[in-house]
User: Which sequence fits this backbone?
């Protein structure tokens, strides 16, 4: 989102560019037009640009917005038993094949319970391999 805004009263006089102590404003020109640029990472939000603008063209209030911008939304992986959030599905997809089992869909509590069950009943973990078959 762009927070630095200039309204239609801007005349391109460059008072803001020339007075910005953080060098967060610059102007570029081609044969037919002048363009003002703002770098939010450099901006100190000191409002010097707003104070020196002779046309009141800078709408500084947008630089003071205290809101969260949504940057990404990712699907969640939840524990198959209790529904506790574990991680994002994308995280599991990006893991190397060797690490994927660590991203299984069980929370720590249910992983411990599953491990205890497997130790207590190892034949169930291996299916019917240990059972005798009658001919």
Assistant:
């Amino acid at each position: 989102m762009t927070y630095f805004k200039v309204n239609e009263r801007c005349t391109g006089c460059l008072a803001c560019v020339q007075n910005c102590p953080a060098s967060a404003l610059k102007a570029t020109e081609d044969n037919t037009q002048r363009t003002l640029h703002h770098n939010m990472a450099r901006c100190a939000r000191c409002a010097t640009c707003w104070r020196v603008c002779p046309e009141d063209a800078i709408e500084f209030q947008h630089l003071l917005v205290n809101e969260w911008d949504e940057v990404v939304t990712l699907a969640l992986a939840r524990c198959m038993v209790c529904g506790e959030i574990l991680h994002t599905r994308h995280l599991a997809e990006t893991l190397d094949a060797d690490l994927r089992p660590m991203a299984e869909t069980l929370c720590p509590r249910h992983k411990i319970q599953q491990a205890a069950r497997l130790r207590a009943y190892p034949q169930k973990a291996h299916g019917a391999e240990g059972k005798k078959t009658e001919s």
Notes: The chain has two domains: 15-64, 76-125.
